[in-house]
Amino acid sequence: MISQMFLKNTLLLFVLLAGACGNSAKSNHGAQQGEPVATQIAQIKTGADNHSAYLPKLTGKSVGVLTNQTGVVAVSESGKTKNISIVDFLLTRKVAVKKIFAPEHGFRGTADAGELVVDGKDSMTGLPIISLYGDNKKPTPEMLKDVDVVIFDLQDVGARFYTYISSLHYLMEACAENGIEVIVLDRPNPNGDFVDGPILEKEHSSFVGMHQIPILHGMTIGEYAKMINGEKWLKNKVTCKLTVIPCLNYDKSMSYSLPIKPSPNLPNDQSVNLYASLCFFEGTNVSVGRGTNKQFQVYGSPFQPKSGFSFTPSPNEGAKNPPYNGQVCYGEDLSDHEKVRGVNLSWLIKAYKNTSDKSKFFNSFFTKLAGTKELQQQIVDGRSEDEIKKGWQDGIAKFKIIRKVYEIY
After folding, report:
1. Which strand ranges, in their side-by-side order, compose the sheet holding 242-245?
2. Would you say 180 and 150 are in contact if contact means Cβ atoms under 8 Å apart?
């Protein structure tokens, strides 16, 4: 006969184990302190992997998909897990995919930044590919006429000037005008909840900055889609029929390493983290390492003083004709720099101070990236990084209040 003490102890053990399991399963909390990043990532399910939440919505529908090489689904095959394209996954589930829409860098993600991406046909599936970069950033009614719903699945990096959120805006606008639903398959923000940078001024809106937000917005692309709708940012203040399929077991305090590079010149976690700080150089005469194997992890130019570090760009994937092709560029290697929590202006300020001809340092693209003329003037005037960033704080505080309404995680 089992003793009462044994039953009592067994029951206590069961309660403790149940509590531990329950805590580990909560999606609103990050991994335990000290838990390896790989373990955290293994727990996270992207919106694309949360397929039970969206497949039923596609039954009997004609579907378009805006995606690229980052839009993948984890599937099991012969006891092993592998990633396949969201397009291939939908086809295996007998979803009636009619066409693929491609953003900057194309469907396979190999085109240079700013390179014209042409329409075509996917060699794997035979589906037509429609470019949404170049002259047609916004789908036309003709492009959408045989589609009931569009799936959006792109891996964003959390920076205002990364153009995938601009493609999202135009897709939502076109679908709103044509009565078509958009389903966003959410993905983690590799820059977490960092919010930093000047707020874009409306008169400086462009494809590299469409909305009045800071450079680092600290939102997932699904949260951002909700903000576009909720703040009535679409043309004529129309709203899109929108569904966001959330990530599971994720919050923005968790470290997240991208399994696939989001574009040719963001090859690793370090480049993604430094992108918001180094992208300013795209509006100057300084290279960010295009044409090297350390894109967005180095900076330099022939106009910087000779130093212990240099690089010489040459054509490679994503940079068929890189700035300063074949020329020695002097600067700084940041590939081993500690993680930046926000926007670092020190490298930009330093490069401006050291350039051989300050009148040739900035170009017209700089204001589009910064979203304001003020930043360039502050650097020219010799303002310190702390002084410049202090001026951003009121705008950031107001943005965070707005952002709160749309947060999922």
Report:
1. 120-121, 128-131, 96-102, 62-67, 149-153, 181-185, 242-245
2. yes
**Amino acid sitting at position 237:** K
What angle do the packed helices 221-230 and 393-404 form, to 10 degrees? 90
Residue type, 152: F
CA dihedral sign of residues 161, 184, 42, 74: negative
Q: What is the pLDDT of residue 18?
A: 37
Q: For the chain, what is the largest distance between any 2 Cα atoms, rounded to a whole number of angstroms?
A: 92
* 321-351 pLDDT, tens digit each: 999 999 999 999 999 999 999 999 999 999 9
Q: Is 291 helix (H, G, I), strand (E, B) or coil?
A: coil
Q: Note the pTM of the prediction, 2 decimals.
A: 0.87
Burial bucket for residue 57 (CB in 10 Å: 0-12, 13-18, 19+): middle
Return the closest-CA partner of residue 87 out of 70, 103, 104, 65.
Answer: 65
Q: What are phi and psi of 330, to 5 degrees?
A: -105, 140
